[in-house]
Predict the 3D structure of the following.
Amino acid sequence: MSFPLASSASFSFEVSSAAHPLDPYGWDEGWAAEFALHAERGLLPGRVVRVDRGQCDVATAEGVVRADTAFVTPHDPLRVLCTGDWAAVDPVGGDPRFVREYLPRRTAFVRSTSSKRSEGQILAANVDHAIIAISLAVELDLGRVERFLALGWESGALPLIVLTKADLVADPAVRAHLVEDVQITAPGVQVLAVSSETGEGIEVLSAVLSGGTSVLLGVSGAGKSTLANTLLGTDAMEVRATRDVDGKGRHTTTTRNLLVLPGGGVLIDTPGLRGVGLWDAVTGVGQVFSEIEGLAAECRFQDCAHTAEPGCAVLAAVEDGALPERRLDSYRKLLRENQRIVAKTDARLRGEIRREWKRKGAEGRAAMEAKRGRFH
């Protein structure tokens, strides 16, 4: 999934060494350069901390102001203003004040909606770390971990898995086993067990998050709001108890909120996600299953589907136990899902898939005719 990217070129002008009021929100030389043309028009920079029904709260040099989003509400749901965006706001005196434009996004976390229209929904913009909160109070769902990771990698952010409620797993050996399972599922991703109750892992997590903007993701009951409060050092987010039966909770957080952490960095807290649909995330899927992609390069045929082809290195790895069959099944599932989503928005790909279906249908009919001929 591609978005207009902010320029990464070097800048020839001199930037003041004085601290900018928006530095705690992630303002840097790159954003200053991108905003230069808007500043010439008399607009003010600010970061969107919350969006709600045509209005938004924007952190500016004068403080957090309320602004109207009428000028940044296009028909494309992926182009609407989002928490984490850097906005160009009317100067003081306007009533109402409007967000006139927003700066090109460096990264964006996108999922598909649960609607039948198969639209994308942007959850957070300009994120450096995608924190995936997984509760240890319930049985691990490794397939869900892989799904979150695919979206995290696709966003351009660096995924980080946080296993919450670690204090509820009293046996160190059991906890170590759970962490190892997740590490195998998430190659190349840092996995950190934390507890808001005992403080385990919080100091390490705070240090990681101090270097940029992070988005906190997970299902209801994963302990996101409690973790956010622990990182903030205050009860800024409402917390509700989870059910003992299945560890699920109600949606405590109902909007996406951008919060400045006391140790540095910015945190975007999101509502619990009931569904995590892929949205044009083939690169992210490949990153999650990098070992399968590596094996696929060794298959005899370049278009190997890893089902029954001779010389398939992926199937050979499953047979000798080097690759868990669950991983291959999950890989196939996410690729199929991603292909369906892309096909609904890509006419060319839809045509290719239809032609493939027709070809396979013709082969199937031919095989049936041959069987009938042999029978008679």
About this structure: The CA atoms of residues 319 and 325 lie 9 Å apart. Residues 1-17, 240-253 have pLDDT under 50 and may be disordered. The first strand starts at residue 44 and ends at 52.
